[in-house]
Write a structure and sequence with these properties.
Layout lengths: L2 E7 L3 E7 L6 H8 L14 H13 L3 E8 L2 E9 L16 E8 L9 H14 L6 E4 L6 H9 L3 E7 L4 E8 H25 L8
Parallel strand pairs: 5-6
Antiparallel strand pairs: 1-2, 2-3, 3-4, 4-5, 6-8, 7-8
Helix pairs in contact: 1-2
């Protein structure tokens, strides 16, 4: 199980992606995908054997891959990459060369970490765009999943519109490399502004600026 990508978040530290082992990671994944907060992953009723079967299928697929995400060296999220011309969106949208599909799922956490999910999606996007062949990332979350729609918008996704899939009504959205980079730059500038405002607000009265 080798690490394929690493990224250091300015605030939350080291993130990485490694190849997923369907058997060795099955118990961990089962707890994640059947958690109530993972309802939109559509595996709520799966047992561990079904989780193994699903990720064996993905591992064997020529156009679909799954990776385990690490935060500070510990398993913390799941990421999938696929070719939307051959998986998930076949015939459902206007495919362009360089399109890459993406799913991600954060592990359930006892104590939520502020900004963690956004750091995860930025890591996944940076990983996908690290491949020079990737021109756009394509996603198709459930139309009811408003939390992920907001996250997608924050990293540069533009909504194309609703599409009907066999398992759900989805909101098709796309993000180009330029849109992702612009969103990252905006987030960095906003972070610097917030830090400066916080520092100014906590200065001691009469102390040097």
């Amino acid at each position: 199980m080798s690490v394929v990508f690493t990224r250091v978040d300015d605030r939350l530290g080291a993130f990485a992606l490694r190849t997923l082992d369907p058997e060795a990671d099955a118990a961990l994944l089962h707890g994640w995908v059947t958690h109530p907060k993972a309802a939109f992953w559509l595996m709520q009723d799966a047992d561990e054997a079904q989780v193994i079967e699903e990720y064996r299928r993905i591992a064997a697929h020529p156009h679909h891959d799954a990776y385990l995400g690490l935060w500070r060296g510990e398993p913390a999220f799941l990421a999938e990459r696929y070719d939307p011309a051959r998986v998930e969106l076949v015939g459902l949208y206007d495919h362009q060369p360089g399109d890459v599909g993406m799913h991600f799922l954060c592990a359930p956490a006892g104590a939520p970490v502020h900004g963690f999910t956004r750091a995860v999606i930025r890591t996944v996007m940076a990983w996908l765009f690290a491949d020079p062949a990737t021109r756009r990332v394509v996603v198709e979350p459930d139309v009811r999943n408003t939390a992920v729609h907001a996250l997608n918008a924050a990293v540069g996704f533009e909504v194309v519109g609703p599409i009907a899939k066999p398992e759900k009504d989805a909101l098709l959205s796309v993000c180009t490399r330029a849109q992702f980079e612009a969103a990252a730059e905006h987030a960095e500038q906003a972070g610097h502004t917030a830090a400066a405002e916080s520092a100014a607000a906590t200065r001691t009265e009469g102390a040097p600026a």
